[in-house]
Amino acid sequence: MGRRHDPMLLRAADPSTVGAMLPPGDRFSGRPRRYHDAVGATDLLTIVECGDPILRRPADPVDTVDLASEEMQHLIGQMRATMEAAPGVGLAAPQVGRSIQLAVLADGPERWGQLSEEERTARERGPLDFTVLVNPVVHPIDAGAGRVSFFEGCLSVPGLMGVVARHRAVRVEALDADGTPLARVFSGWAARIVQHEFDHLLGRLYLDRVETRSLSSSENYVRYWAGRPPSEAAHGLGFTLD
Ligand code: NI
After folding, report:
1. Which one of the listed residues 119, 197, 219, 232 is annotated catalytic?
2. 118 is catalytic
3. Where are the domains of the chain?
């Protein structure tokens, strides 16, 4: 997902549903584990950009035995550090050259840039504690929620932003970094992040769903559309909102 001025760095509505998910302890060794503490700045991963076939390949499920390995736990730490350094609100393993069903997510005030309170409210963007999703399955929750359209971006598609309609809320079944089954509802901006990262694991990019007429360079996004409702971009660029 995107950079500091990127609305993808926006919010998830209900802090109770995007709840307090701290880095899990290491149930394999019994020691507490803090992924990013184990990763130095020189350990950042290179982010793969669109055009690389790995981004277009459905990723393989992660075996739970492999998940417990030092190598995999280190990868999670590297992905967290790489996401934070970008900065972004989500990163999927194919984006760092690994075709496995693993994604990391996080959002918070340090990523909200110049968003006004009004914009954050419109996007239902709130704090999302660091979350690891392994082998996720995502179910839209459509009853009364519908879809919402906002600009988003992707670290694998540098320099572009575009409007994507996404489900306002989703239910996710996955494993966490520990291999513990997790079932959780994400809404608002967190639901957008989850859907974006889940798409990566299926070999999809937001470009496959974007309103093509909304596509804007980062500079023009800041110049014309940041701080304005998507309806104004729809009017100005000639597309229809869902
Ligand atoms: Ni992305």
Report:
1. 197
2. no
3. 7-237
